[in-house]
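TL;DR need structure tokens for one chain.
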Amino acid sequence: MSKNNNKGSFKDNLIARSEEATKVRKIASVIILAILLLIIVGGVSGYLYIKSALEPVDPNNGEEIIVEIPLGSSSSNIASILEESGVIKNATIFQLYIKLNNYSDFQAGNYTLTQSMSLDEIAENIQEGKVLQEPIYRVTIPEGLTIEQMADIYAEKLPFTKEEFLEVVNNEDYINELIKRYSVLTEDILQEDILVPLEGYLFAATYDFYEEEPTVESVIEQMLSQTELIVSNYLAAIEERGLTIHEAVTLSSLVEKEASNEEQRKQIAGVFYNRLEEGMKLQTDPTVAYAIGEHLQTTLYEHLEEDSPYNTYMIEGLPIGPISNFSASSLDAVVNPMDSDYLYFLHDAQGNIHYAETNEEHNQNRAEYLN
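>> reply
TL;DR here they are.
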């Protein structure tokens, strides 16, 4: 090959490489430009989104909205409640805002808020406890009650009947709707032999109502919200115990019916766990009364033979569902029971509880304290 031909080939290679490098630079420039545009657009969009979330929901809407902040609510709970009530746009942004602006120590209560209020106005109201409206009705539901007993109380205090309350609380379509909305409710409450699906899930507390004619649904949902708030604080501990939510609520109702103070609850929860580990039946009298459907002043041997998935003298393990509502103290006892070797307990006439490790000791307690 001649020297001139070699020179031509080398020149062609240089030109081809130069053109290729130019193409690469153009492609790289386009990619870099696209990335920069994405960053700019994302930044602008993010800025506009946050700016919008910091503004009132509707500056021209002064319609009053009653917002309930339950006792023990965390800042995340409060932010979620405010977003669900429609008085803020975004719960996460609200949480960041109150943190950056040092808002804390929010007060429980029922607040009259509007969509025209700024985040500062809302936060200041809740921080200072500016409850602007007195409740029309205030109803206290004690611990350890069945839904039927609650229905009696509400029928006396609110403008609907016991029958109307029980009809709604047992409505299958409504129960299925509630299961979708409240994480504390699971398919367990739909088991065929469950007597009342929501039994145990309507939390014992004092409830304020601001409408002239509150609906049964509004009452139930306010109580369920309180249950969800309480149970959410114990989810990790419930899982560590190897319990489902339904099992934890069921066991809490048994503890509630057998104990009257925090120490008793923890001790009895420990006894129940010991019995379960030993493969013993729980044999707790309140489950017999619930299975029969009436209050028993004295539990007789004939009562113990009631054929029911609630009767812990007949079945192994926990009853099919709760037998009453429960207190936060009872749920706490279920996840933090007192450690002991006790397998038996009995109540004396003064309300004291006497524990025993063996059946022999238990019989001695019976002879000493029940005769």
